[in-house]
Specification:
The complex is a heterodimer of chains A (280) and B (393). By secondary structure, chain A is α/β, with parallel strands linked by helices. Chain A is built from 11 helices and 10 strands. In chain A, the strands form 2 sheets. A 7-stranded mixed β-sheet of chain A has the order 6-2-1-7-8-10-9. In chain A, strand 1, helix 7 and strand 2 form a beta-alpha-beta unit. The longest helix of chain A is centred in the middle third of the chain and has 16 residues. Chain A is globular, with a radius of gyration of 20 Å. The model of chain A has no long low-confidence stretch (mean pLDDT 92). Chain B is built from 5 helices and no strands. Helix content of chain B is 87%, strand content 0%. Chain B is mainly alpha-helical and 393 residues long. The longest helix of chain B has 156 residues. Classes of the chains: A alpha/beta (280), B mainly alpha (393). Chains A and B meet through helix 2, helix 8 and strand 6 of A and helix 2, helix 3 and helix 5 of B.
């Protein structure tokens, strides 16, 4: 490797990238995390064969006109966002759903008429959360009611992986053999999710900073370990948008290290990390 | 030097010499002139002798060349075998480092998430700390106000006792007034008609005295109730005071604990941040290693190709010396053995020995995990780029 030809990110462009991330993705880069971003950008530039940080910046911020630029942009999004996820991660949310499914259906003004439980996994990453929900709801929903799950993420690469539904299980995966044997098929050393689970989930590319385009409200929204990357202002805006996209008595699940205590919102606290929309 | 051609030439010369010899013999018996035959035979003998000398010299050279060629051929076979081993090892190393790079990337992602989570927890703890401090202040304030209230209650109890005393005085006055009114009534009766009016007044005074006595009694009961109540109040206020003191102590402890948690999670955050940096540096290095390993695997493969070429050169050299089909066997059979061994070792070698199902990765391909997800048929939704419209949602 020729170290003399390695890319270096100029501080001026590092600041510009921070600004771009905040404005377009809501991601707030703490001053202490700037060096980490610089490392990531340097690697991206080296991989893309671009040595000039100004050139790279313009590649990223301008609308893509070539396949190469599109790929660079996708790689950028994929690298600056974090894709940590597992099956049944932060399991008490799923346990809560299992315990309270009858109540959720009973209290909802729509589920009994539409026979549909609408769930949104708003930052699905590589799809583990959405498929966990699909499997769980398959198990616990009463007959006649089906789950309609929307799973979105900002990273095209993650969505592509999620759509493929091919996984490897590691020690950090909380998934039991029951679910693995029932809903997965082994192909080589990977596991492929079954079509009955896949069919309940629609994957879409979506940036949470954009206006919400939904026609109908959701019954449950999962937005876990996303707001940790946002500042208070962005968090407030996002939580408010979630509130407006939920039906009456519906639920918002947030990450275990998160809390809505520091922001202004209209939700009613239900349990730690579980909030309910009571009015309307 | 082509020995086979030389042998053919030699055979022709020998043939001609034989013919000349027969002619000479027949010439002598028939008494013909044999001079021309002798000249031809002399020339042919010279050629034969020189050929013989050449053959002796070249045979010696051939023997040495053959020895060198054999050693070279053996070395070439060894080299082929070694370079194919090197290719396999290089591929293994490349696959291993690529896998390592993938897992480091995953670790890095996990760490970054953990760092952000710890950061959020730190923020939450700080918030809780400030809330606990506010609660502590309120508890302190409540405690002070409770003290004031306790004093007021004490005052209230005292003033109730004072009122109770005054009521007793009023009761006594009423009693005495009653007696006086009775005396006045007796005196009015003695006075006869003149005292009739006075008797009415005395009766009224008696009524008033009795009403005063009743009112004093009622008031006394109420005051007694008040005294009881203020005593109870004092007890309750004391209990509230105790509770407030406990709350104050509790919030003090909570505040201390939160401060400790806050400090600890800040430390944790810094620690994770450092690990994160280290991991991303490792990531950098591992990525470098991966490409180096791939490069060396490629070089090893090239080495195999070159060694094969050397083998081929050996074969042609040997066929040049021994002639087609001769001497080739020793080199080519050896080299083919060498390649055979390479094929076997290629089949046997597996970059990830504990995962037998996995095929040998090509040097340029991505980690198997990524390939697996890319290769799999995507669902009917199309590619991420063209699914921005949220359809029926």
């Amino acid at each position: 490797m020729d170290l003399n030809k390695a890319a270096v990110i100029e501080p001026r462009y590092l600041d510009l990238f921070c600004e771009y991330l905040y404005k377009n993705m809501g991601i707030y880069i703490e001053p202490s995390k700037k060096s980490l971003l610089a490392q990531k950008l340097t690697k991206l530039m080296n991989d893309g064969g671009i040595l000039n940080s100004g050139e790279y910046y313009h590649f990223i911020v301008s609308p893509p006109i070539s396949e190469k630029q599109k790929e660079l942009k996708n790689k950028f999004t994929d690298t600056v966002t974090v894709h940590k996820t597992n099956f049944f991660r932060e399991n008490n949310h799923f346990e809560f759903m299992q315990r309270n499914i009858a109540k959720i259906i009973e209290e909802s003004p729509t589920i009994r008429f539409t026979n549909e439980l609408r769930v949104w996994s708003s930052a699905c990453s590589t799809g583990e959360e959405a498929y966990t929900l699909s499997m769980l709801l398959k198990e616990i929903l009463p007959p006649g009611i089906r789950a309609k799950i929307l799973a979105t993420d900002i990273s095209p690469d993650s969505i592509r992986k999620a759509m493929a539904g091919v996984y490897k299980f590691g020690p950090e995966d909380n998934i039991t053999n029951y679910y693995i044997n029932k809903y997965f098929t082994k192909v080589g050393d990977t596991w492929v999710i079954s079509d009955e689970i896949k069919n309940n989930v629609s994957f879409r590319l979506f940036n949470l900073m954009e206006p919400f385009p939904f026609k109908n409200p959701f019954d449950i929204i999962f937005c876990r370990n996303v707001m940790i990357y946002f500042d208070k202002e962005v968090q407030e805006k996002l939580v408010n948008n979630f509130y407006n996209s939920l039906s009456k008595n519906s639920l918002l699940f947030i990450g275990h290290s998160e809390s809505l205590i520091q922001i202004k919102h209209q939700f009613t606290y239900h349990e730690p990390t579980i909030y309910k929309k009571v009015s309307k | 030097m082509n020995f086979s051609k030389m042998k053919i030439g030699l055979k022709i010369v020998l043939g001609v010499l034989l013919v000349e010899l027969i002619s000479l013999a027949s010439g002598i018996t028939m008494g013909k002139n044999i001079t021309s035959h002798l000249v031809v035979m002399g020339c042919l003998s010279t050629v034969l002798i020189s050929q013989y000398i050449a053959w002796v010299v070249s045979d010696n050279i051939t023997k040495s060349v053959k020895n060198v060629l054999e050693s070279l051929s053996e070395t070439s076979v060894n080299l082929t075998s070694l370079s194919s081993d090197l290719t396999v090892t290089g591929s293994k190393l490349a696959a291993g480092t690529t896998e390592q790079a993938a897992s480091i990337q995953e670790t890095s992602s996990t760490l970054e998430e953990s760092e952000s989570m710890v950061h959020q927890t730190t923020q939450n703890t700080k918030e809780a700390d400030s809330l606990a401090k506010t609660a502590k202040e309120f508890a302190n304030k409540g405690n002070l106000e409770m003290q004031t209230m306790l004093e007021s209650m004490e005052e209230l109890k005292k003033s109730s006792s004072e009122i109770s005393k005054i009521i007793k005085v009023i009761d006594e006055i009423a009693f005495q007034t009653n007696i006086l009114s009775l005396n006045a009534a007796v005196e009015a009766a003695r006075a006869g008609d003149a005292g009739k009016g006075f008797a009415v007044v005395a009766e009224e005074v008696r009524n008033l005295a009795q009403r005063s006595a009743q009112a004093a009694k009622d008031t006394s009961v109420i005051i007694e109730g008040n005294i009881n109540l203020s005593e109870k109040c004092l007890i309750v206020t004391g209990q509230v005071n105790d509770s407030l003191v406990s709350i104050k102590d509790g919030t003090n402890k909570v505040s201390e604990l939160l401060e400790e948690i806050s400090t600890a999670s800040q430390e944790q955050e810094i620690g994770i941040g450092q690990i994160n940096k280290a991991i991303s540096q490792m990531e950098h290095v591992v990525h470098g290693n991966a490409s180096t390993a791939q490069e060396s695997a490629l070089s090893a493969e090239q080495l195999t190709v070159h060694t094969e070429t050397i083998g081929e050169i050996m074969t042609s050299l040997s066929s040049l010396i021994y002639g087609e089909g001769k001497g080739v066997a020793s080199v080519s059979s050896k080299s083919s053995l060498g390649f055979k061994r390479f094929e076997i070792s290629k089949k046997q070698s597996n970059p990830i020995s504990d995962k037998p199902a996995r095929r040998q990765p090509k040097l340029t391909e991505k980690p198997a995990k990524m390939i697996a997800s890319y290769d799999a048929k995507p669902s009917s939704m199309g590619t991420p780029e063209d699914i921005i419209p949220l359809g029926d949602f």
